[in-house]
Design goal:
Elements: H1 5-32, H2 38-55, H3 66-92, H4 100-119, H5 136-159, H6 166-176, H7 180-183, E1 189-194, E2 200-205, H8 214-234
Antiparallel strand pairs: 1-2
Length: 236
């Protein structure tokens, strides 16, 4: 990388830590039936591992071209979720989840991986992104993607304080759901499933556990957005 090598290693370490946390969210959600957005957390795990490999060549995994297929599929997934939410909002008027940032991140991953695969010549002791040059239109695309990601980072950071803590959500569920003994069984409860972007999707399901921390999920979004924006800027 044309920047400081220690900075590349620092971002790679941050991505591995974020990947481990998102993987832990998936495991905890499965074992303890805690609501979370499994698709978002799963894609975050893959994004962080892929970015760590681009920042530090020795951490690179997966076959050449494989990551592009994965994140191309991710872009299709979040694009479809945006369309589905728009249709649901048109019918019911409820607020939908914000999937544009995930779509944008997947497109940025495809761009970075394709550009790196085509043009990068790894330098000993450097980053897999070193010496990357791009035509003017590709540089413009990288800049637009970076600005979009930074904008979402600012938006997400601004909304963290408005996200309810897990303890508050658990207390709300405890007061909203009467004990099983009182009703002869566990009644369905309305669980607020908060997305990493800070929105909530309310689903009526028999759940009595609070969602996994939306504030920490938002912090993951910020870490990923900053790292991805930095990598895009270094490609200009």
């Amino acid at each position: 990388m044309s920047g400081q090598s220690w900075l590349a290693y620092s971002f790679a370490a941050l991505m591995l830590l974020t990947s481990a946390y998102c993987l832990t969210r998936l495991v905890v959600s499965w074992r303890h039936r805690r609501p979370t957005d499994h698709q978002v957390d799963g894609v975050h795990v893959l994004k962080c591992v892929a970015m760590a490999g681009m920042l530090v060549p020795s951490l690179r995994v997966f076959w050449v071209g494989g990551w592009e297929i994965v994140f191309g599929a991710g872009a299709v997934l979040f694009g479809w979720r945006m369309i589905s939410d728009a249709r649901a909002r048109a019918r019911s008027g409820r607020r939908s989840g914000h999937h544009l940032q995930h779509l944008l991140a997947c497109v940025a991953m495809v761009y970075m991986l394709a550009a790196a695969t085509a043009e990068v010549k790894p330098v000993s002791g450097g980053s897999a992104m070193g010496g990357l040059g791009s035509p003017a239109h590709l540089r413009t695309l990288a800049l637009v993607l970076a600005l979009g990601l930074f904008a979402y980072v600012v938006w997400t950071a601004d909304r963290i304080s408005s996200l309810a803590p897990v303890a508050a959500m658990q207390a709300h569920l405890a007061t909203a759901v009467p004990p099983a003994a009182a009703g002869g069984g566990e009644p369905p409860a309305t669980a607020a499933v908060a997305s990493p972007a800070g929105t909530s999707q309310f689903r009526t399901k028999p759940r009595t556990r609070a969602p996994l921390s939306p504030r920490l999920a938002a912090c993951c979004e910020i870490a990923i957005g900053v790292t991805m924006g930095y990598m895009l800027i270094m490609m200009l």
